[in-house]
TrEMBL record:
Residues 384-437 form the NfeD-like C-terminal domain. The chain crosses the membrane at residues 233-253, 283-301, 308-328, 334-355. Residues 239-353 form the NfeD integral membrane domain. It is found in: Membrane. PANTHER family: INNER MEMBRANE PROTEIN YBBJ. It is a multi-pass membrane protein. Residues 35-220 form the NfeD1b N-terminal domain. CDD domains: Clp_protease_NfeD_like. This is Serine protease. It comes from Ammoniphilus oxalaticus. It comes from the Bacteria. InterPro entries: ClpP/crotonase-like_dom_sf, Membrane_assoc_protease, NA-bd_OB-fold, NfeD-like_C, NfeD1b_N, NfeD_membrane. Its main location: membrane.
Amino acid sequence: MRQRYSRLGSIVISVFILGFVILQLGIGHAQTTQVVYKIPVKQSVEQGLRAFLERAFVEAKEHGADLIVLEIDTPGGEVGAASDIGGLIRSQQTPVVAYVVNEAFSAGTYIALNSDKIIMSPGSAIGAAAPIDLAGNMAGEKLLAAWSKKMTSAAQINNRDPVVAEAMVNPQIVIPGLTKRGEILALDAAQAEQVGYSEGTAKTVAEAIELVGYGQAKVFSVEPTAGEKVARFVTNPFIIPLLLTIGIVGIVIEILTPGFGVPGILGATSLTLYFFGHYIAGYADLLHIILFVFGLLLLVIEMFVPSFGVLGILGIIAVISGVVMAAYDTTLGFVSLGIACIVAVVVGFLLIKFFGHRGVWNKFILKDQQKNEEGYVSHHDWSNLVGAEGEAITTLRPSGTAEINEQLIDVVSEGGYIERGKRVRVLKVEGTRVVVRQVD
């Protein structure tokens, strides 16, 4: 019996030991499972993208990511946004790999260069990073030099040839076999790998992850929210002037025409998108929105309650302050608002010229006419009326209108009050001043 219990005890102990070993193996396996976060960097580079990446990096950190992969497919974008994103990438303790899906031009090149490694897909390209202005022209020497320095510094961070980065910005840099003078350098996948601007080529992001040693990792994806998508659209430097123009022109049309219709809805929607997008991106706050709305109200009040321009000036200052303070770039804010105001003035002028008889302007336009057939005449020499008699058409207090010799004439009494319908006689004429006295 004792031997049976001894054998049973041994079995129980063995089971516990085996379970403990299996548990430890499972825990060890869970601890060694790698985590990769995949984040898209697509379309134009703007401040809305920076806000999205900021959130995505925080999420990756909170979930213990071992690697972050940026799926880049962008034609470029705003230099300031790219600079901010580059700083954001450099601040990450987690390794960051840039996977170029199709193209990483201009600002996209800078984002890739700040990453620890670059993997390219077959047929993709990187480079062509010369800065251009909103008109599509090459930027001035000052901006060109500053951007060139940023590009070369980003290349040097990960031991890449800075001359190649400079050739992507400056058309005067010549690299034998790659570019001639006057050309901006862009590299395909093979060329990028040849000059050390790519650690390899992969057909898919999964292959890219495997190429850098995380083939067995669990992959998570981060996608922008609906609000972040709106913010990305709104903070595009080409969209900002358009939104402000539609917004201000829509409000101007609504003020100048009766009722509240499509222009007002479009205007309000555009301005809402402008402020909402910049709010999501982290630039606008409630104060900026209140300033703008308050400014518009002051401008409307100025139209109906003359204040010698005080309310109008305060309204203009408030509108400008609200728009510019909400913008991520002060210069862009001023330029965009200037464009919108110029278009609004032109539209307002055309509306007043062709539709001035309608809407609110109907209250400000003098439409009464003094026609000759109604007895009104222009300035005349009334000296021949001295001694003539007539009838007071209006009460003279002391000025008014009298009918003399079948003509309506502005007259003034000798000083007394003359009721309407009384007979009057012209005493004297002093220029255009006709003095009359009541006939007893």
